[in-house]
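Example record for the data management plan.
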Amino acid sequence: MQISDVKGQGAMEYLMTYGWAILVVMIVGVMLWKMGVFGGNPEGINMANGFAKMKPFEPGIKYDTVNGLSFILSNGAGTFISDLNITAGGDCVGRLDPESATMDSGSAVKVSDANSICDTSKMVGDAFKVNLTITYTQMISGHSYNHTDRGRITGIVE
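Corresponding structural encoding:
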């Protein structure tokens, strides 16, 4: 074995060790960024964070200067739900109106700001943040259970 072979092996071990460490750090960093840990919202992207069972479809989130806030809410609870109530805080404050207070498993309902409770001073291109509290009654084997789901939707005013 020549000395140059030993040097090459040492360099390769060095690169492999630090390469894997850098790869792990990069993967963790990307995961944290995608979860919104670093704050902010990339321009033009609507996001929904923190929801467990009742989740707004991100492409369906819209906040415009004429109609205020609207979004499509999906039932991920796995069972029929009733008594759907949605309240907002942040750039919209008060009760939002779903098209229906009941939802079958896997179905979706449109929710809108029919009461003009959203900040009317927002201009096109401004960022918005709305905290949602969603309460509902879930039916499981003939028994009803009250649940609360919380999260935040963010995006850019259109």
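Summary line stored alongside the record: The chain has two domains: 1-39, 47-156.
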